[in-house]
Amino acid sequence: MMTIARGHADIIVAGSTGTRVHETRTCHSYLQDPIAQGNDESCGKCLPFDLNRKGMIIGEGAGALILESKEHAEARGATILGEVIGQAICTGWNADRSPDRAQAVTNAMATVCRDAGIQADEIQHINAHGLGSQQSDWDEAAGLAEFLGTSTEKIP
Question: Are 67 and 55 in contact (CB under 8 A)?
Answer without folding.
Answer: no
